[in-house]
Amino acid sequence: MVTGGAGFIGSHLVDRLVEAGETVRVVDDLSTGHRHNLVQHAAGTFEFIEADLVEPGVATRAVEGIDYVLHIAAIPSVPRSVADPVTSHRANVDVTLLLLEAARTAEVKRLVFASSSSVYGNSPTLPKHEKMPTNPLSPYALQKLIGEQYGQLFNSLYGLDIVSLRFFNVFGPRQDPSSPYSGVISLFTAALCQGKRPTIHGDGRQTRDFTYVSDVVSGMITASTAAGVSGRVMNLAAGGRVSLKSLFEVLRDVIGVDLEPLYGLPRKGDVRDSQADNTLARELLGFDPQVRVEEGIRRTVEWHRATAPGERVPPRPT
Q1: Which listed residue (140, 181, 212, 263) is catalytic?
Q2: What is the reported pLDDT for 177?
Q3: Selection from 183, 188, 184, 186 nearest residue 252 by Cα
Q4: Prediction pTM value
Q5: Number of domains in the chain
Q6: Rounded-to-integer distance, Cα 253 and Cα 255, Å
């Protein structure tokens, strides 16, 4: 079962599982996901349940007959959690607890929890490694940390097999640019393709570990069945570091426009610098990221142009 399977990361995960011949159940309330992310699959290749996992009985029904739960469903936004911490808590903590209990009762083989690098906060140490103390700066970061801790508690107390993976700035096709809370690459791409100047919040020197979605999907699938990882928390990221100013320049070159960014005030709760030490995932999962940031950006721009016809900035001539 994939929770949030109609969303950005979740739909790519469903694609890979269906292609591998797995029987997949998707649970999504479509609050941020879209049915069109799954239209490529013929009827019968997967089961879709449109439901909110926090509603009574939904999580219990959803895990019936399921061996592996890949839990991605969330409101994955720092600024949205700052603006509305109660709704964010409901989606990111209450749902996770209900799903853990349902998985325990149903005796699923393993639950893989999508956590976040935001749990590290603004520690000056780079790269971030799993033994570092956590320091959440936003409700979202705290909610993801609570999810990890609940998972470790269910593992030690009840024997539920669970693995938590800390994602770092995942990007790629299907990341919805229509949302102001979307990832920076999708927002910059949409603006530049429309001939608009995107806004960088801060001075542009802040850095992120951008990881292409197909690499995250590979790591998550491996984590669902890998031996010797029960109860572990691991970073799942490329292990690089790119400033937002450099990212903008790469996007501008790929799209073929001559625009400068706007600069705004830093956002509350945002981390200044982020980079993963992915040694543990490499050792325990054989994790080996394949898509460099520049190639991932090219693929993302191509997807955006194919799905947003009529934008007035043409592709750069070859």
Answers
A1: 140
A2: 78
A3: 188
A4: 0.92
A5: 1
A6: 6
